[in-house]
Specification:
Blueprint (H helix, E strand, L loop, with lengths): L1 H31 L10 H23 L2 H15 L10 H22 L3 H29 L1
Protein backbone atom coordinates (compact mmCIF):
# COMPACT_ATOMS: atom_id res chain seq x y z
CA UNK A 1 0.00 0.00 0.00
CA UNK A 2 2.78 2.41 0.95
CA UNK A 3 4.70 1.51 -2.21
CA UNK A 4 1.62 2.21 -4.34
CA UNK A 5 1.13 5.58 -2.61
CA UNK A 6 4.77 6.54 -3.23
CA UNK A 7 4.53 5.46 -6.87
CA UNK A 8 1.38 7.56 -7.29
CA UNK A 9 2.94 10.58 -5.60
CA UNK A 10 6.19 10.33 -7.59
CA UNK A 11 4.32 9.76 -10.86
CA UNK A 12 1.99 12.66 -10.17
CA UNK A 13 4.92 14.95 -9.32
CA UNK A 14 6.77 13.89 -12.45
CA UNK A 15 3.70 14.44 -14.65
CA UNK A 16 3.08 17.89 -13.13
CA UNK A 17 6.73 18.82 -13.57
CA UNK A 18 6.74 17.81 -17.22
CA UNK A 19 3.47 19.61 -17.94
CA UNK A 20 4.56 22.77 -16.17
CA UNK A 21 7.97 22.76 -17.82
CA UNK A 22 6.29 22.38 -21.20
CA UNK A 23 3.95 25.26 -20.41
CA UNK A 24 6.83 27.47 -19.28
CA UNK A 25 8.78 26.70 -22.43
CA UNK A 26 5.69 27.56 -24.47
CA UNK A 27 5.43 30.95 -22.78
CA UNK A 28 9.11 31.62 -23.26
CA UNK A 29 8.90 30.72 -26.93
CA UNK A 30 5.73 32.78 -27.44
CA UNK A 31 7.26 35.83 -25.76
CA UNK A 32 10.36 35.61 -27.98
CA UNK A 33 8.55 35.17 -31.32
CA UNK A 34 9.07 38.01 -33.73
CA UNK A 35 5.99 39.53 -35.32
CA UNK A 36 5.31 38.47 -38.89
CA UNK A 37 4.75 42.01 -40.06
CA UNK A 38 7.36 44.69 -40.61
CA UNK A 39 6.07 46.60 -37.59
CA UNK A 40 8.47 47.32 -34.75
CA UNK A 41 7.87 44.87 -31.86
CA UNK A 42 5.97 46.29 -28.91
CA UNK A 43 8.59 46.37 -26.17
CA UNK A 44 6.01 47.05 -23.45
CA UNK A 45 3.98 43.99 -24.48
CA UNK A 46 7.11 41.84 -24.52
CA UNK A 47 8.02 43.00 -21.00
CA UNK A 48 4.44 42.34 -19.91
CA UNK A 49 4.66 38.79 -21.25
CA UNK A 50 7.91 38.34 -19.32
CA UNK A 51 6.05 39.33 -16.13
CA UNK A 52 3.51 36.60 -16.86
CA UNK A 53 6.35 34.15 -17.38
CA UNK A 54 8.00 35.17 -14.08
CA UNK A 55 4.73 34.61 -12.20
CA UNK A 56 4.34 31.26 -13.98
CA UNK A 57 7.83 30.20 -12.92
CA UNK A 58 7.02 31.22 -9.35
CA UNK A 59 3.97 28.94 -9.43
CA UNK A 60 6.01 26.07 -10.90
CA UNK A 61 8.64 26.44 -8.18
CA UNK A 62 5.92 26.52 -5.52
CA UNK A 63 4.32 23.35 -6.90
CA UNK A 64 7.66 21.55 -7.09
CA UNK A 65 8.59 22.48 -3.51
CA UNK A 66 5.07 22.41 -2.03
CA UNK A 67 5.47 26.09 -1.10
CA UNK A 68 1.87 27.27 -1.09
CA UNK A 69 2.83 30.90 -0.46
CA UNK A 70 4.84 30.95 -3.72
CA UNK A 71 1.91 29.38 -5.57
CA UNK A 72 -0.52 31.87 -4.08
CA UNK A 73 1.74 34.88 -4.77
CA UNK A 74 2.20 33.78 -8.40
CA UNK A 75 -1.54 33.29 -8.83
CA UNK A 76 -2.27 36.74 -7.39
CA UNK A 77 0.31 38.26 -9.76
CA UNK A 78 -1.35 36.54 -12.73
CA UNK A 79 -4.76 37.80 -11.60
CA UNK A 80 -3.38 41.34 -11.28
CA UNK A 81 -1.80 41.13 -14.72
CA UNK A 82 -5.06 39.86 -16.21
CA UNK A 83 -6.76 43.05 -15.01
CA UNK A 84 -4.15 45.34 -16.61
CA UNK A 85 -4.98 47.35 -19.72
CA UNK A 86 -2.10 45.70 -21.63
CA UNK A 87 -3.83 42.35 -21.15
CA UNK A 88 -6.81 43.41 -23.28
CA UNK A 89 -5.25 43.35 -26.72
CA UNK A 90 -8.58 42.82 -28.48
CA UNK A 91 -12.30 43.36 -28.12
CA UNK A 92 -12.95 40.10 -29.96
CA UNK A 93 -15.62 37.98 -28.23
CA UNK A 94 -13.51 34.81 -28.34
CA UNK A 95 -10.49 36.63 -26.93
CA UNK A 96 -12.63 37.95 -24.07
CA UNK A 97 -13.83 34.40 -23.39
CA UNK A 98 -10.24 33.10 -23.25
CA UNK A 99 -9.28 35.97 -20.94
CA UNK A 100 -12.24 35.38 -18.60
CA UNK A 101 -11.46 31.67 -18.40
CA UNK A 102 -7.85 32.36 -17.51
CA UNK A 103 -8.83 34.84 -14.78
CA UNK A 104 -11.30 32.32 -13.34
CA UNK A 105 -8.72 29.54 -13.29
CA UNK A 106 -6.07 31.83 -11.72
CA UNK A 107 -8.54 32.64 -8.93
CA UNK A 108 -9.19 28.91 -8.46
CA UNK A 109 -5.43 28.30 -8.28
CA UNK A 110 -5.09 30.96 -5.59
CA UNK A 111 -7.93 29.36 -3.60
CA UNK A 112 -6.43 25.86 -3.87
CA UNK A 113 -3.02 27.14 -2.73
CA UNK A 114 -4.59 29.03 0.18
CA UNK A 115 -6.24 25.78 1.27
CA UNK A 116 -2.92 23.92 1.02
CA UNK A 117 -4.25 21.56 -1.64
CA UNK A 118 -1.29 20.47 -3.77
CA UNK A 119 -3.25 18.27 -6.17
CA UNK A 120 -5.94 20.93 -6.60
CA UNK A 121 -3.27 23.58 -7.15
CA UNK A 122 -1.50 21.41 -9.74
CA UNK A 123 -4.76 20.71 -11.57
CA UNK A 124 -5.68 24.41 -11.57
CA UNK A 125 -2.21 25.24 -12.88
CA UNK A 126 -2.57 22.72 -15.69
CA UNK A 127 -5.91 24.30 -16.57
CA UNK A 128 -4.32 27.77 -16.52
CA UNK A 129 -1.51 26.55 -18.76
CA UNK A 130 -3.97 25.03 -21.24
CA UNK A 131 -5.99 28.25 -21.17
CA UNK A 132 -2.85 30.23 -22.07
CA UNK A 133 -1.92 27.85 -24.86
CA UNK A 134 -5.41 28.01 -26.38
CA UNK A 135 -5.52 31.81 -26.15
CA UNK A 136 -2.06 32.26 -27.67
CA UNK A 137 -3.02 29.85 -30.44
CA UNK A 138 -6.19 31.87 -31.08
CA UNK A 139 -4.28 35.17 -31.13
CA UNK A 140 -1.64 33.82 -33.54
CA UNK A 141 -4.11 32.15 -35.90
CA UNK A 142 -6.93 34.68 -35.83
CA UNK A 143 -6.01 38.10 -34.54
CA UNK A 144 -2.52 38.36 -36.00
CA UNK A 145 -3.70 36.85 -39.30
CA UNK A 146 -6.31 39.64 -39.56
CA UNK A 147 -3.64 42.37 -39.34
Amino acid sequence: MLQRHLMYKNGFSFLCGIALLTGSLFFLNAADKKPKSNKKPDKDLSEFMREKLAASNQILEGLATEDFKLIQDGAVKLQDLSQAEKWRISNDVMYKQHSSEFTRVAAQLQKQAKEGNLEGSALSWLQATMSCIECHKFVRSTLIAEQ
